Amino acid sequence: MDGEAERPIAERYDAIFLDLDGTVYRGDRAVAGAAGALTEIRRRGLRRLFMTNNSSRTPDEVAGHLSQLGIEAEPGEVLTSALATASFLGREGRSGSTAFVIGERGIRDALGSAGVQIVDGEPETADLVVVGLDRFVDYGKLRRASLLVERGARLVATNDDGSYPAADGLWPGAGALLAAVTTTTGATPSVVGKPARPMFEAAAEWTGATRPLVVGDRLDTDIRGAGAMDWDSLLVLTGAAGPRDLLAADDLPTYVGSDLSAMLAMTPPARFRPARPSDVTAVRHLLTSAGLSADGVEERIEDTIVSMADEEAGLDGAACLEPARRGRRVDAILRSVAVRSEVRGKGLGILAVASAVRMARWHRASTVSLFTTSAAPFFERLGFRPVDRRELPASVRESRHAAEECAESATPMLLRLGHGPDQM
Ligand SMILES: CC(C)(COP(=O)(O)OP(=O)(O)OC[C@H]1O[C@@H](n2cnc3c(N)ncnc32)[C@H](O)[C@@H]1OP(=O)(O)O)[C@@H](O)C(=O)NCCC(=O)NCCS
Ligand SMILES: [Mg+2]
What we know:
- Helices cover 31% and strands 23% of the residues.
- With 424 residues, it is of the alpha/beta class.
- It folds into three domains: 4-53 and 195-264, HAD superfamily/HAD-like (Rossmann fold), CATH 3.40.50; 82-191, Rossmann fold, CATH 3.40.50; 273-416, Gcn5-related N-acetyltransferase (GNAT) (Aminopeptidase).
- The strands form five sheets. A seven-stranded mixed beta sheet has the order 16-17-18-19-20-22-21.
- Strand 18 (317-326) and strand 19 (329-339) form a beta hairpin.
- It is elongated.
- The two termini are 45 Å apart.
C-alpha cells in the first residue's frame, strides 16, 4: 500500500482484530501496555474487534471483564467463537435446524438468537451436534452427542483448542471434549474458531473490513489464520510465543512487537521476498551502511531476501542464506543480516532471521551457522548458540565465507534444525 510506512501500523488497516488471552489479558490481569494502546486506538476512531475462541462467555460478559481491567469495550466489539458459529450456521442456511449442544451460556445464547432450536435431554435425533467448552459436561451428554452424530447429525465445533488456560494450569478445552465425540464416531467436525476460516469470515462480515490487521500471541492460531486469509498480522510477545518460536514457524507475521503499544509505532511491514538482480545496488548500500561487507553480493543475490516498504527510503532489511552441501547433508550459512538504522529495534531483524531460517528448513538443512562481531546477543535471544569453530559443520568450516572472509575475532554461532543425519 502506498505510503503505508508513513503512518502508525494501526492506521494502515480498516479494522484491528484482536485476540484476548495472552494479548489483552492473562486471566484476571491486563497485559502491560494493553489498556493504553487500546484506549488510544479507540480515541483515534479505529475499528476494533476482540476475537476469542472461548465460547462459554457472552459478549456482555467479555466486555464487562475488559472494563474491569480498565479497557472500555462495548459488547458489539466482541466476537466469540459462539457468535461466529451462529453466523457460520446462518450462512450455511442452518437456522431453523435442531441442535444438541455441549457448551455453556455463550454458545446456547448465540445459537438461540440465530434461530437454531436447542434440544436438551435425550433426543432421538438432531440436525446438528454443536460442541464448545462445557465445564459441566458428563458421560451422558458425550454419549448422547456421539449417538446423534452416528445417526447423521452434522458435527460442528466452536473451536478445537485442546486446552483451556486457567489460573491453576491447563484445563480440558473444547477440543478435548470434541475428541471424545470424534474418537467415538470417527466423524470429521466443521471447526469455526481460529485458525479456521469461519471465525475470520464472521469478523469480516461483522465489521465490513476488507483489509484488517490480526493481532495475537499465538503463531499456530492468530498468525496462521491471518496468513490463510491473506491478511497482515502482528505477533505480540506477551503470551504463548517467544522470539525463538518465530524461527520454527512457517507462517510469519507482518510485524512483531513486545506488546500492544507496537500497534502505534511507525514500523515498516516485513515482507521478505527473494532479491532480484535489480536489487544488487540497494543490498550493497544497506550492507555497507550497516558496517557489513558487500563483497560478492551479486553472486549471492539468489540466496538473498529483502524487504522494502518505501522506494525512497530504500531496503528496510535483508538477509542471505547459503546452503552448504556435503554428500546428502545440507547445512546453511546465514550472513548479511542487516536492518536500515532508522528502523532498528522494531522487530524487523527478528523477522529477517526467521524468514531466512524458514528457507533453511525448505533446503532441509540440519543447522544454520553464522559469524558475528557485534550482534551475538541478538542472535542468542533467537536460539543461536556461540560455538567453537571446531563445532561447526565441516561444509561450513571449509566454506569461503569461514575460510577467507570472516575476521578471526568473529563469534561463530550455530542453530540446530533437526533435519538430516547428526554426523557433521
Ligand atoms: C542486528 C540487526 C540486524 C538487528 O536488527 P533489528 O531490526 O534492530 O532487530 P530487532 O528489532 O528484531 O531486535 C530484536 C531485539 O534484539 C535487540 N538487538 C538488536 N541488535 C542488537 C545487537 N547488535 N546486540 C544486542 N541486541 C540487539 C533489539 O534491541 C531487540 O531487543 P528488544 O526487543 O529487547 O528491544 C541490526 O541491528 C543491524 O542491522 N545491525 C548491523 C549489522 C549486523 O551487525 N548484522 C549482524 C551480523 S550478520
Ligand atoms: Mg491468545
